[in-house]
Amino acid sequence: MSKTIGNPITVAIGALSSSARSVEKGIETIGSHALTAPHVKRIGLADLARALRLGANDFAALRTDVMFMVVAYPLIGLLIAGLAFNAALAPLLLPMAAGFAILGPVACVGLYEMSKRREAGEDVNWADAFTALSAKVLGPLLTMSAYLLGLFTAWIFAADLIHEVTMGGMMSGGLMAFLSEIVSTQAGWTMLVVGTGVGFVFALIALVTTIVAAPMLVDRPVGLPVAVSTSLRVAARNPVPVLVWGALVALLLAFGVATLFIGLIVVLPILGHATWHLYRAAVSFD
Asked: What phi and psi, each to the nearest 5 degrees, are found at residue 237?
């Protein structure tokens, strides 16, 4: 049987048409077709401890596959630290390191999928993490990523403005000189206190809008509006546990950063898996 080669223009038009349909499908999934909102349950500190314990169990069971996935995070952190040794960028080291708390929900998408599969009793490996990026959830996840990236960018600009106002924006040396100036001058302490307060606001916004949103999108195609509104409802119904959870995340990430970012290889997977289990404890679709 003879084969024919399609006209290049026809092939190109067909490819563009297929791409357009994929984009259209992705845009459609950003919204929600769900008719009923999921049930938000009351959780306590015991649920936070259980989520962390189950997250640690997932990490222990999947550590080779998980560590293969997240090894890039400490490398990114070390790159940030290396750039900060440039005197002009040193004031942004701490804000950029704190940005892991803002970008974390989407950085752990693959871990949610692995926990989901392990919870269902399936065999799991690192390749399964990429199935989370299906056409059904890619649009909402990319939109959430853009939102968190915008929040992170706003935080960096705010941190730079705080440094400009409190310390004049001038640098007399590299990173070590900058850190010494922070702890030895009134202006440095003012910048630290104000920056911590403003950073807390940004982190809180990210926390209450995404605490269960990303794992929910991985779990089922509910659409971004339902996922975000459910996160807000979880935070409203469980303010103390949510704040404690945010504090635990901040402390663990601080440990990961303090170990020259190497600790993130362990901290981020445990937090990612634990976030899945926290979502399962706080939200029900019954």
From this structure: -80, -25
